[in-house]
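Sequence design from tokenized structure. All designs in this work follow the same two-part layout: the structure record, then the generated sequence. An example of the structure record is given first.
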């Protein structure tokens, strides 16, 4: 049972997390403190109402909003929320003496397939529930954009996001076209 959905998707992840986690001079306590602080910030956004999908992936997060029936104000709210979440995480990382390099966020929009799959249940938890998965171009391109200007820009939005809002700035977030 596959449904076609128009979505706005944001991917964020920690810059240089793998090298940070492998660095021998970083203690397990420093790594645990960092991860605990990161996930506390991830959880903040997962508790916000109206997003159809929040998925954790190691040191990253995907936040997805189905656009059907949503107006420009909801789109702006989503963009501001994910941007300021990314800024908060980046500021948190840069405030630590032992931490990775920073955080980056990429945003894209388009149509994708929504399908329902069974989640793997934990032993002793009974039946398996179905969860939504979103697959297609906007999800893939958003993930791939993480490598574009990976260290130079906190947030990059794909050109397909701009038609969703009418302002020259995206909801108060100043944007600069990339060459």
């Amino acid at each position: 049972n596959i449904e076609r959905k128009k979505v706005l998707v944001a991917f964020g992840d920690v810059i240089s997390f793998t090298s940070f986690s492998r660095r021998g001079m970083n203690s397990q306590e420093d790594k645990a403190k960092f991860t605990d602080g990161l996930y506390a910030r991830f959880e903040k956004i997962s508790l916000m109402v109206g997003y159809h999908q929040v998925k954790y992936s190691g040191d990253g997060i995907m936040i997805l909003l189905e656009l059907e029936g949503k107006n420009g104000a909801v789109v702006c709210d989503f963009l501001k929320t994910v941007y300021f979440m990314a800024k908060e995480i980046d500021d948190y990382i840069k405030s630590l003496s032992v931490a990775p390099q920073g955080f980056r966020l990429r945003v894209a929009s388009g149509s994708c397939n929504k399908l329902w799959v069974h989640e793997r249940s934990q032993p002793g938890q009974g039946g398996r529930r179905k969860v939504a998965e979103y697959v297609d171009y906007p999800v893939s391109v958003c993930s791939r954009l993480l490598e574009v200007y990976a260290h130079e820009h906190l947030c990059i939005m794909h050109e397909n996001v701009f038609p969703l809002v009418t302002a020259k700035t995206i909801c108060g977030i100043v944007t600069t076209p990339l060459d």
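The beta strands are 2-15, 53-57, 60-66, 102-118, 130-135, 155-157. We note this feature because it recurs in several other targets discussed in the main text.
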